[in-house]
Amino acid sequence: WLVGFDREHARDVRSGENAGKRLVHANVVREMIDLGTWNGSADERTFAIKTAGDGGVALLVQQGLGG
User: Which Pfam families did the record assign (predicted)?
Assistant: First the structure.
């Protein structure tokens, strides 16, 4: 999986128990792209990832049928 995330995301709360507060969240995932199965050979791909500002990307790799 290729994961696009925002390092920080702030939201002004308008109603409810947090009304009037500004909540800041870290590493908010914006998009996950399934890259499929890799056979171990060299490969090069290009993807457009949804991030904002100083957003980043993470590559998630797992072996076998793990969860």
Answer: DUF1223
